């Protein structure tokens, strides 16, 4: 998944009023302001009310539901055969008081990050929250690099598993 594909998806969703936030590895790179590694997919967070519109719009540009066995209504993957692009969709919903009531349990303050992808400003998960998410499970090599880069950029203390 390259930067042009990410920005194409962002534009497609914005064109129909779907607000989304970059998550995962692309979020790390957006917050760092540069692409630091290859990405297999794009992770995005989207409100439950926007899922139908998201599915329709991304289908128009060639993305289809993969329906793998790990899919749920709140976490699923869309893929495009023409270029191998894939989008891991994370669905959430909050009540009127900002409490999580459905889907991926994002804290309500997670959606305050702003990053840059290929010179374009993009909304993403906040640095504090993506750091928290990335350190909540045993790290793969790419996660160690991501967490170290976030720690360097934002001054976060690295957990022991991420130190040299």
Task: Please describe the structure with a list of short key phrases separated by commas or semicolons.
alpha+beta; two-stranded antiparallel sheet; 32% helix; single chain; 5 helices; 164 residues
For the terminal residues, how far apart are their CA atoms?
Answer: 29 Å
User: How many strand elements?
Assistant: 8
- The helix/strand class is alpha+beta
Order of helices and strands: HEHEHEEEEEEHH
Report the sheet-strand fraction. 15-25%
Percent helix among the residues? 25-40%
Poorly predicted residue ranges = none
Biggest sheet, open or closed, and with what strands and sense? 6 strands, mixed
Gyration radius, in Å:
15 Å
Overall shape: it is globular
Number of DSSP helices? 5
The average pLDDT value, as a whole number, equals 96
Descriptive notes:
The protein is α+β, with helices and mostly antiparallel strands. Helices cover 32% and strands 24% of the residues. The protein has helices at residues 3-14, 24-32, 51-60, 127-134, 141-154; strands at residues 20-23, 42-47, 64-65, 75-79, 86-94, 100-103, 113-117, 120-124. Strands 1, 2, 3, 4, 5 and 6 form a 6-stranded mixed β-sheet that branches. A hairpin with a 5-residue loop joins strand 5 (86-94) and strand 6. The radius of gyration is 15 Å and the shape is globular. The model has no long low-confidence stretch (mean pLDDT 96).
Question: Brief overview, please?
Answer:
The chain has 164 residues and is an alpha+beta fold. 32% of the residues lie in helices and 24% in strands.
